[in-house]
Specification:
alpha+beta; 49% helix; transport; ion transport; hydrogen ion transport; Vac_ATP_synth_c_sf; 4-stranded antiparallel beta sheet; 16% strand; V-type proton ATPase subunit C
Amino acid sequence: MQPTQYILVSLPLRIFDDDPLTALASTVGRDNGETLPFSIPSFKIGTLDGLVQHADDLAKLNGACEAAVAKVADSLKGILDGDEDKVAQQKMVNDKPTDHYLGTFQWNKVRYRADKPLGELIDNLQKELQNIDNDVKAKFNQYSGVKTTLAALQRKQTGNLSTKSLTPIVDPRLLVQDSEYLESHLIVVPTNVRKDFIRSYETLAPMVVPRSSIQVAQDDEFTLFAVTTFKKTSAEFLQKCREQKWTPRQYKYVEGGKEEEQRELDRVAREERKVWGEALRLGRTGWSEAVMIWAHVMTLRVFVETVLRYGLPLEFVAALVKTNPKQAKKVKAALDSAYSYLGGNAFGRDKRGRVTKDDTSLTSEMAAAGLGAAEGSEYTAYVYYEIDLP
């Protein structure tokens, strides 16, 4: 299934003879996408210099919104183990499916009063986005940390003999303890070289106690041996084992250690479930907030760019086209074909009637209008923005 892509456009009313939205929908084509009205309030316009600055600020804020929404989507994917269906269920905005929210978008006049200066609205949106981004990041990092700790504890319980806890496995009575001269070492040996170990361990280093090896445990991959040496040659014996790719294991008997390990595992498992629930709730809230903020930022972008492009009096139609990445190219081509003349000399047609661009005049006209296409984006003769939701 193709992901949904949204395109926001605005065009001057003067170019339409009939209902502008109907004409726009006809240009887009029913097969290419659904054309919906997009309501934009009347904001305080301010000065031309102010508008140019706002356009720059909104372009940067738009990038931050895109990154924040992508981060929340990744967090939800991590929390829900990549289950796309479950992730989709969490992607609600104000308890509505995201496409329903965007398709029926209304500016939140209570939260963002339209009579406030544009700069103030932009600052508020930026702060809100930063807060939600920080909250989601902090909670997801906490969840990742707890999950890693739990996985390490579970490996200790269920891994092979080279990694798992030896507390429930080793009988301390098999080991030499409290001796002034001797000590026992636990060595993990791949089972397929078990005979090599038994044959050679006594001569690996000086002062290995003959016939001291005891098989303590075995699993599908490894065998665990206890070997006794004199303390003064212990370091050399352990080093020789490592050279043979045999793994010395640290072990210290602690009274009640087995029960303590189980209690710690249970405690971290409970914490992981708790933090998972918190991270999921915050991921859901984060998606709702970040998409909602992004929709308001895009509304301001369309408004500011519309004033800069078409001037005053402000008479324009704005629409949201709901499509997919494949059809979006056809939508763009249809819009260019119908409205490229708004770019003046910047656009022309070749012998076959296809739209072409004169980049030289385009650059000078944009500079004269105080406009600059965002880095990496293509200039259009009309107000055009894409919203790609992950």
